[in-house]
TrEMBL record:
One GO MF term attached to the UniProt entry: oxidoreductase activity, acting on the CH-OH group of donors, NAD or NADP as acceptor
Species assigned in the record: Nepenthes gracilis (Slender pitcher plant)
Name of the protein described by the UniProt record: NAD-dependent epimerase/dehydratase domain-containing protein
UniProt KW keywords: NADP, Oxidoreductase
Record bears the keyword Oxidoreductase: yes
NAD-dependent epimerase/dehydratase domain: residues covered: 8-242
Keyword Glycoprotein: no
CDD domains cross-referenced by the UniProt entry: FR_SDR_e (cd08958)
PANTHER family linked: CINNAMOYL-COA REDUCTASE-LIKE PROTEIN (PTHR10366:SF369), NAD DEPENDENT EPIMERASE/DEHYDRATASE (PTHR10366)
InterPro entries in the cross-refs: Epimerase_deHydtase (IPR001509), NAD(P)-bd_dom_sf (IPR036291), NAD(P)_dehydrat-like (IPR050425)
Top-level lineage group: Eukaryota
Amino acid sequence: MSSKGKVVCVTGGSGYIGSWLVHLLLDRGYTVHATVKDLQDERETKHLLALEAADSSLRLFQIDLLDYDSIAAAITGTVGVFHLASPNIIDRVQDPERELVEPAVMGTKNVLAAAKQFGIQRVVVTSSTSSITPSPSWPADVVKGEDCWADVEYCKQKGLWYSLSKTLAEKAAWEFAKDRDLDVVVVNPGFVFGPILPPTLNASMSVLFRLLQGSTETYPDFYMGCVHVKDVALAHILVYENTCAVGRHLCVEAVSHYGDFAAIVAELHPEYNVPRFPKETQPGLLRAKNAAKKLMDLGLEFIPIEQIIEDSIESLKRHGFVS
Ligand SMILES: NC(=O)c1ccc[n+]([C@@H]2O[C@H](COP(=O)([O-])OP(=O)(O)OC[C@H]3O[C@@H](n4cnc5c(N)ncnc54)[C@H](OP(=O)(O)O)[C@@H]3O)[C@@H](O)[C@H]2O)c1
C-alpha cells in the first residue's frame, strides 16, 4: 500500500506509543488525525505539534472514548484507523469498571462502529500481552502466543483490572469484526520501553523508573516480555500496510521473565539500586526467543533488549526523571 496522501486516524495519538506511531506515519507521508483527551492541555499536544510535517499533515481532535460523536469527527475523512486510546493503569484503581473496563470496551466499540459507518478499509487495534498472559491453565511446556487468551475469571478473582479491560476490549473487537464484517487486525505488545516523546511518564516506563529506584515488584501476572516503542509503532504500520496480516500479533523481542529484564538492567547500569530477583518471576512461563514470528515474517527485526534498556534510561535521564 502506498502511503502518500493517505489520511489515517490514530486514537490516543498523544500517548507514549501513539506519539511514536504518529511520528512514523508522518515520516512515511501519511496525513494523520491524532486524538487527544484535552486539546487545551499542552502536555498532550506540544510534542505532537513539534513533529516534522506536523504543520502540513497533522490534525488534532479531542475525543472522549465514551462519546461516539467525538470519535466519529476524528475518523471522518480517513481511510484507516489505529485504535490505541485506552486507560493504561496497572496500579490499584478505585472503580475498575468506570476507570478501566468501560472506557476500554465502549471505546473500542465506538471506534469500530465509526470505522464501519465511514467505510474504513482496515482498523488496527492495540491490545496487549495482558490479554494473553494471565492464563494459569496454559501448559508450562508450550510457549504462550497468539493462540493463548487471558482467563477472564482469573483476572476478576485476582483483581487484574487492566488485563480484564484489555481482554474484554479485544474480544469485543473480534466480535464486532465478525458480526459487522469489518477488517480488523490486532497488535499485542508486551511491556513497552524506549524513548519518551510526551513530557509525562506512562505506565510501562514508570515500571523501569521504579525498578531503578529499587522496587521489588515482579508483575507475576503481567510480564511476558518487552519491546522497543519504535518497534511497536512499526508493527502497527506493518500490519496496516500488509493486507496479508490477519489476526493477533504478539509483539515482544522475546518471551521472557521480568527478572531477566531486571538482571540486564542491573548488569548494564550497576550505578542504580536494581534488586536481584529469583530466576522464575513469572511462574510457569516458558521463555522463547523469536516468539513474535508473525511480525518477523512481515519484516520486523526486533531491537535487542540491551538497546531497549539503553534508549530507555537515556530518555529518562534526558527528561530529568533520573540522574
Ligand atoms: N505501554 C505498554 O507497555 C503497553 C503494552 C501493551 C499495550 N499497551 C496499549 O497501548 C495503548 C497505548 O498505551 P501507552 O502506553 O501509550 O499509554 P498512554 O501513554 O497512557 O496513552 C494512552 C492514550 O489513550 C488516551 N486515553 C485514555 N483514556 C481516554 C479516554 N477516556 N478518552 C480519550 N482518550 C483516552 C490518552 O489520552 P491523554 O494522553 O490525553 O490522557 C493517551 O493518548 C493502550 O491501548 C495500552 O493498553 C501499552
